[in-house]
Amino acid sequence: MNTFVLAWVLLLVFAAFNNYIIYRLLRERRRTDLMWIGVVATVVPVGLFALWPGAITLMSFPLIQSVGMLVIMRLAQQR
Question: Whole-angstrom Cα distance, residue 33 to residue 37?
Fold first, then answer.
């Protein structure tokens, strides 16, 4: 399997898994209105990797996902 294809598969699998975890966390707290933050935190690095495939844009995925999760946790606990 080509490493580029492997990178895409892993990126999409982890994106789906992270969004599922975020959804479960928000559903438990009845704050699914914040789900858009998780989607944006997924779409931005996937879009960056689609435009400029490389190691730097691939490494931006966990960073942006972590920032998105931090924002979600802060907003979910304000209630």
Answer: 9
